[in-house]
Structure formats: C-alpha cells, structure tokens
Amino acid sequence: MTGQKALFEDINMSKKVKVRMGNGKKIQVEGKGVVKIDAMTGKNKTIRDVQYAPELDYDLLSVGQLMTVGHKLLLDGGMCTITNKQTNKVVCKIPMSSNNTFPLNVGRTCEVGLSAMSEETLTWHLRYGHLNEGSLHTLSSKEMVYGLPKVKHWNVCEGCV
C-alpha cells in the first residue's frame, strides 16, 4: 500500500475501499494496481495488487502477500530480511526504525548492494540519517559515539544515490 501515485505503472481507480489501519483509523483506498521497482542492479521488480491510499505518508508492505508469492521474512537483530524461497536469495533488508517499524523506501531499499556494507555498518549509517562514510569513520576512529564499531568501507547505499 502506498500514497505515491507516481509509483504505479498501471492502476485501476475503480477499486475503492476503506481499510482499517493498526491504530484503528480507517483510510480510503482510491485504487489498486502494479508498481515497478527499479533497483541499481538494473533489474526491475513488479509488485501486483498494490493499493493506492493518498493519505499514507509511508509505504506499507503486506507480510501475507509476500508469503503468498514465495518469500520468507526474518525479523531479527533490528532488521527485516526478505528472502526468495526458491532461490534463497536475500531480496531486501530493512533496518528497524526508532519507532520499532520497518519503513520500506520503495525502489531504494530492495535488491541493492547492501552486501557491500556490513550489517553493523549499514545500521549505523542509517541510524545517523545516511551520514556520509567519512563522517561516520571519524565518529568511529575518534571513539566519539559509545558502542559505534569500527566502520568498514562501503561501495554504495541506494538511498544515498
């Protein structure tokens, strides 16, 4: 479910329903369609049956829908890891935010070069709002942040591109 109409490759605006959110509030769904995600790997991924709800500030992903189409999810270590069951390939790693949710930035989180960065380095990079590598390295090398490990070099963070 997304509030970003521009993400849709195809949308049926006749699919209007009310959906109850986790906080009990009902929001209007204005349509349903297909969203194509462009990743830096050059591959495109298609997500079908995505609901368009203009009131949403964040994209929401249906765990049930992911399971139905052959993915498994692991929630551990402050990350949500989505894996394709057929290929056993990690499709997406989403760090947990400070409010204990896993915000998905469509087109910038999934199938990117996260393996180029250790999970621990990625977590700190994201905690500091995508802080650049040099500044994060300075914080680490000068021991300016309690608990910050030695920062490893990374090639790319899709969200920063």
Write a concise keyword list for the protein shown above:
alpha+beta; single chain; 3 helices; 161 residues; 30% strand; three-stranded antiparallel β-sheet
Summary of the model, kept short:
This protein is α+β, with helices and mostly antiparallel strands.
Question: Any chance you could write out the topology, listing elements then pairs?
Answer:
Blueprint: E1 8-12, E2 17-20, E3 26-29, E4 31-38, E5 44-52, H1 63-68, E6 71-76, E7 79-84, E8 90-95, H2 119-127, H3 133-141
Antiparallel strand pairs: 1-4, 2-3, 4-5, 6-7, 7-8
- How helix-rich are the residues, as a percent range? 10-25%
Given the C-alpha coordinates, what overall shape results? elongated
Please give the order of strands in the largest beta sheet: 1-4-5
Strand content: 25-35%
Largest sheet, described in full? 3 strands, antiparallel
Using the CA coordinates, give the radius of gyration. Answer: 17 Å
Would you list the SSEs in sequence order as H and E? Answer: EEEEEHEEEHH
Number of strands: 8
Determine the structural class based on helices, strands and strand pairing: alpha+beta
Mean pLDDT, to the nearest integer, reads: 77
The first-to-last residue Cα distance is 24 Å
Provide a count of the helices: 3
Residue ranges: pLDDT <50 for 5 or more in a row? 111-116
